[in-house]
From TrEMBL:
Domain Restriction endonuclease type IV Mrr positions: 68-125
Keywords of the record: Endonuclease, Hydrolase, Nuclease
Species per Swiss-Prot/TrEMBL record: Funiculus sociatus GB2-A5
InterPro entries, A to Z: Restrct_endonuc-II-like, Restrct_endonuc_IV_Mrr, tRNA_endonuc-like_dom_sf
The UniProt record lists the keyword Cell division: no
Name of the molecule in the record: Restriction endonuclease
Length: 198
């Protein structure tokens, strides 16, 4: 199995774990994690295949009212802006009003990718799974400045990485954080707002 597929499965496993533990803020019986889901594009007149998704359904329904789509990139270099632009175009084709998108990588994003994602409301996660070798810059601290988080999100050099898995993130509403619970809660506040409007 290639490193790209392995990373996709790791991301799907992480999301399933978060769902099962109640960390996503939704009932596990009202959501499902999908690996390689396909969603219909009216523009293409066929399905678009994605890496991972979280589908959220209303109680008793099988059709999702909201989908969080994850694009997994396990490159040996930072993610370029072109990849984020392509992901944005695909999200718009499958339902911009009922989808949220996040790109996830263990390496980081280039400056153009960060700026484009921030302007278009696309989340970015630099998720470094446990036991992944990294280049450390310093010993870290409990207090993370916005500059440190942005640096960690955009470069392979990792400031202050503690032992175990770690996340640098940009939420879809433009917040930088290293707290997984904060990343998730901010994303699902938007989902709950959208659900109440429907």
């Amino acid at each position: 199995m290639g490193k790209g597929k392995t990373y996709e499965l790791d991301v799907a496993s992480l999301l399933q774990q978060l769902l099962d533990q109640g960390e996503l803020g939704i009932h596990p019986e009202q959501a499902r994690i999908q690996h390689k889901p396909a969603y219909y594009s009216r523009d293409r007149m066929k399905d678009i295949l994605f890496d991972v998704s979280i589908e959220v359904c209303r109680r008793g329904a099988s059709t999702p009212f909201w989908i969080w789509i994850w694009e997994c990139k396990n490159y040996s270099h930072t993610i370029p802006v072109d990849d984020v632009e392509e992901f944005h175009a695909k999200l718009n084709q499958v339902g911009a009003d009922r989808t949220k998108g996040t790109m996830i990588t263990p390496i980081g994003f280039d400056e153009g990718a960060y700026e484009f994602a921030r302007s278009k409301g696309i989340g970015l996660w630099r998720w470094i799974p446990k036991d992944t070798p990294v280049i450390r810059l310093d010993t870290g601290s409990e207090l993370w400045s916005q500059e440190s988080i942005l640096y960690g999100l955009m470069t392979e050099i990792t400031p202050g990485l503690p032992d175990g898995e770690f996340i640098y993130g940009l939420t879809t509403n433009g917040q930088l954080t290293t707290k997984r619970s904060e990343l998730i809660s901010l994303e699902f506040m938007d989902a709950q707002s959208n659900a109440s409007l429907q």
